[in-house]
Amino acid sequence: MQRFKAALSAGNGVHLRRFVRHCRGVCSLPDAALTPADNLDHQVLVEGKAWSRTAVLNRPAVLNAFTTAMGARLQKLYKSWEDDPDVGFIVLKGSGKAFCAGGDIVSLYHMINRDNCIYNGPDCAGKIDDCKDFFRACYTFIYLLGTCLKPHVAILNGITMGGGAGVSIPGTFRIATDKTVFATPETLIGFHTDAGASFYLSHLPGHLGEFLALTGDRLNGSEMMASGLATHYLHSSRLPLIEEELGKIVTDDPSVVEASLDKYGEVVYPNETSVLQRIELLDKCFSHDTVEEIIDSVECEAGRTKDAWCISTLKRLKEVSPLSLKVSLRSIREGRFQTLDQCLVREYRMSLQGITKQISNDFCEGVRARVVEKDFAPKWDPPSVENVSKDMVDQYFSPLSEFEPDLELPTELREAFTQVAHLVTSFVFKEGGFHSWNDLNRSGCSTL
After folding, report:
1. Which pTM was predicted?
2. Which one of 25, 102, 103, 228 is the catalytic residue?
3. What sections of the protein cross the membrane (predicted)?
4. 16-443 falls under which CATH superfamily?
């Protein structure tokens, strides 16, 4: 933590690129924007290179919003490439101006609300099953990525939010650019920080993860580098150069891939207005045990200092779903002591609770207000954090029913990446950060 604070100081010369080596989302476009080709295999294209394969998320009209079909196809492709001795490493990128704006929440919204569907209501089972399929496909792919045996490069050029971050950050390398916009904005739509976010956010420096999860605030490319969410940075105009370089190399050695990325990478630092320049104040406010205490702390600092960041943070905390705030805070805190697969299994339970209206209608109300009708005036239920009971939060973390199966991940087939903690101690903390995301997953490390 001290290295992180020192690196932000002017003139210290610390290379932020490696502070943490390897430590969803809103699509606001209408269904009318979809094209006939927007289905099945067309949603993920494949490019073949000398010793690598590139998967291209291909729904540019809706900012590459993630679908069930995308998750299923990516699983099939990655399993095939992992078993293919002629494929040394994998690249993932998006088409158009986004990498991936997160899960296709508009489709989920219409599935849930069609014919006033309520869980266990008439004609509802099939629609809820479709929603389950979506989360299952997405979370399973995230686990496959996080335990992938081959080097993985994600090119995060453009919007990278929610599920978009989930399907990229668990990989070996993440390239941020001047066009990268990262966020986990689930509390704004009455949901929880999912798609593995409770794992990777909980391992960010200090309490930055809590701040990002609760407020949904954005980070740019340089801030992703400083916090460890990205491993490399370069200007978007130079992306063709790095893609050409990656297309030429013949290797399955991550150090060789890294060297190629290093050749084009740039050293960048957060500017003076960055939230990372306020890391001590952020930690002071967001280290509290409860949402109420966090809000009180921010409000106190805003009143005392009149600081613009405190005022805007307080405003955001009072705008988002109160239930989502409490659920997301607990999720991040639990994620700090869980492995990736444990976080994904828990998040799957939470996602099903979030969409079925058994506890609250906040998810559908949030999507309606911010994405569908866009009146930006959601009516949250409960309307304030004081009205969110412990029982409501506890239920959010419970199975839908006694007979509801949990998410099944191939942990036995990929067991080496969730256990074998003794292999980590010799090289996890390289240059003040994690040497690889798989190392972090193996170690079950709780803090930096």
Report:
1. 0.83
2. 103
3. none
4. 2-enoyl-CoA Hydratase; Chain A, domain 1 (3.90.226.10)
Q: Which of 71, 88, 158, 163 is catalytic?
A: 163
Please list, in sequence order, all residues whose beta carbon lies within 8 angstroms of the beta carbon of residue 416, skipping any fewer than 6 positions away. Answer: 442
Residue closest to 43 by CA, chosen among 134, 166, 149: 134
Q: 115 an active-site residue? A: no
Q: Write down the catalytic residue from 25, 158, 164, 194.
A: 194
Q: Does residue 94 carry a catalytic annotation?
A: no
186 in catalytic set: yes
pLDDT tens digit sequence for 316-342: 999 999 999 999 999 999 999 999 999
Contacts of 413 (CB under 8 A, 6+ apart): none
Asked about 366 being catalytic, the answer comes back as: no
* For residue 382, cis peptide bond before it (omega within 30 degrees of 0): yes
Question: Buried (b) or exposed (e) across 235-251, using 16+ Cβ within 10 A?
Answer: ebeebeebbeebeebeb
Whose structure tokens read 């399955």? 252
Which of 293, 305, 308, 353 shows the shortest CA–CA distance to 327?
A: 353
Amino acid identity at 323: L
